[in-house]
Design a protein that fits this description.
Largest sheet: none
Mean pLDDT: 88
Number of strands: 0
Structural class: mainly alpha
Shape: elongated
Number of helices: 5
Distance between the termini: 29 Å
Strand content: under 5%
Length: about 170
């Protein structure tokens, strides 16, 4: 698990391992006699098939990585749109609730940015705990404001907060 959190170290360790394996393979091959002509033909077929499979494996790996990157990008965009829309909708709530809620929503946005910028598990657990607390606080505040003066506009603000919390 340690190496998975440090990609550069993983790269160096993998590179050195593969280099050592190739060097050992070269030493072992130099001690053997050359292939006969019929064996060489079979060997070339196996090498071609192996390289084809390696190419497919690399292609599928890049395809999956690209798909995951695009998915994450679209989810981040969806969440940002939900937050900005809710920030504007909070003005529809009655009384002094919008100012306090907008401040809470800014703090929530800062937490979400920290989540996306963070890389390691212990920090993520702390951010997730703070985010859960902040979500409960946001929902309680919106629900209280909407219950104080029920109207279609406060229902719209409540629905928007639901979209933020789901995103």
């Amino acid at each position: 698990m340690f190496l998975l959190n440090l990609p550069r170290v993983l790269f160096v360790a993998t590179f050195l391992s593969l280099w050592c394996a190739a060097w050992i393979g070269m030493l072992l091959r130099s001690r053997r006699q050359e292939f006969s002509e019929s064996t060489r033909s079979d060997f070339n077929t196996v090498v071609g098939a192996t390289l084809t499979l390696l190419g497919l494996l690399i292609g599928f790996t890049f395809s999956m990585a690209t798909t995951r990157y695009d998915l994450r990008k679209s989810l981040e965009e969806e969440e940002a749109n939900a937050i900005s829309t809710e920030y504007a909708r909070l003005d529809l709530l009655p009384g002094g609730a919008p100012a306090g809620l907008q401040k809470l929503l800014r703090q929530y946005t800062d937490l979400r940015i920290q989540f996306y910028e963070s890389r390691y598990g212990s920090n993520l657990q702390k951010i997730n705990a703070e985010t859960a607390k902040m979500q409960n606080q946001l929902w309680d505040t919106v629900a209280t404001a909407a219950k104080a003066q029920p109207s279609p506009l406060s229902a719209l603000a409540s629905s928007g907060m639901n979209d933020v919390l789901n995103a």
